[in-house]
Amino acid sequence: MQKRSFGKNAKGEEATLYTFENKNGMTMEVSDFGATLYSLTVPNQEGKLYDVVLGYDTPAGYEGPAGTFFGATVGRNANRIGNAAFSLNGKEYQLDKNDGKNNLHSGSDSYSFRIWKVKETTENSITFSLHSPDGDQGYPGTLDMDVTYVLTDDNAVQINYYGVPEKDTIINMTNHSYFNLNGHGSGSIEKHFVWVDADAYTVTDEESIPTGEIIPVKGTPMDFRVKKEVGKDIDADYEAVINGKGYDHNWCLNNHGKFAKVAELNADISGITLEVYTDLPGVQVYTGNFIPEEAGKQGVVYKRRQGICFETQYYPDAINHDNFESPVCRAGEVYKTTTVYKFS
Q: What residues are labeled active site?
């Protein structure tokens, strides 16, 4: 492991980048700022290296007005909560309204913008820890959340989440990396191919809040059960993709709560493949429809649809829908989940 300065955040706190390399020459760089995945340099079949995740050169970029959440660890609750409010054990909780009248990624003080403590390191892993007090972001219960990144010798990044709340609360962590398997500065991902193991998706309104309805993907642009180009139906005359300006939806996975491969992404140029594994019930596939034209890391100017996210999760707004699997973690219970991004 190597470490170097990542610059200071808006509060003047020093951030650090940690670099890991496996036996194949693949490297992973992560920061204690937001427990962020900054870069993943992956070899293709010829051994050429590609940095396949979007990012910024300093914390200031991540804190900027674009709200992209490049590579971020998102918590305490990823995705959206309608009307920025929920009820738990008969008590009403009000959250930050940072997405119109709704709450997105836990509001303006997301875990993504904080300096995490380094709890433990090995030659191929690092564990970040964050103390979240009772009432933090509007959520009940003190929570110490651990996020561990592991770089394996089979070219996988394993992300483990662990926490035990002191009160009943919502916990729904995710990683918000934007992938481009032709390299982070290579342009559109619309020619990449995608497969998602999901027979249904959650319907949303114009503000991307679930209506509670779950409908089959069959016969719709949302069907990725047979691999197809990202861009094939991305601008179809279909309400979901019209409202989302492309794909920005939760797919209801067929893994039935078991750790399994749930999605695959194939590059059209580099030949690199990404496999996504999780034990969570949903994945938000987001095609970067709102990436602004702005400078990212290494001077690259990013534009719309130049990265794709696979945000493993409980369904958005699950706390407000009894037919969705609950994101509530009870006092003293262990919150533990794993997501793997494997490259070949």
A: 176, 311
